[in-house]
Amino acid sequence: MDADEDEDSEPVQLNANGNPIKRRLRANREQLRVLESVFDQNRTPSPGFKKDLAKRLGMPHKSILYWFQNRRAMLAREQKRLHTGQVGVTSMQGSEDAAEEELDGEGDESSLMKMKEDMLKFIDRKNSGRIGGIAGQGGGGEN
Hints:
Elements: H1 2-8, H2 29-41, H3 47-57, H4 61-84, H5 95-104, H6 108-127
Helix pairs in contact: 2-6, 3-4
């Protein structure tokens, strides 16, 4: 009878190898704000920093890796459009200013401090219960 109960539940989709397909988890608004803030300060954070960021934001490490990779690709596409004269819609806030700041080498200390402050504020709000968890959180599977 247990087999019948399993059949009644939502079917699990399998990939070509017969493994279950994992559902994509989306970052919430506050996590995105922190990620954008970090990206504005440093487009390529160190692996250790990304692992720490993943823990602090309660996100899988791979999600952080892919987010930064996709964000850099999006910025490159947008810059290419701007240089070729194409008009595109962008959701990047302050990326051009951050790029100039990185090239000038200015603001490194204050950028890191702001990034840390944003992370700590996020963690404080999350711990105080003002920020809800993300869907599927707590299922393990984080490598």
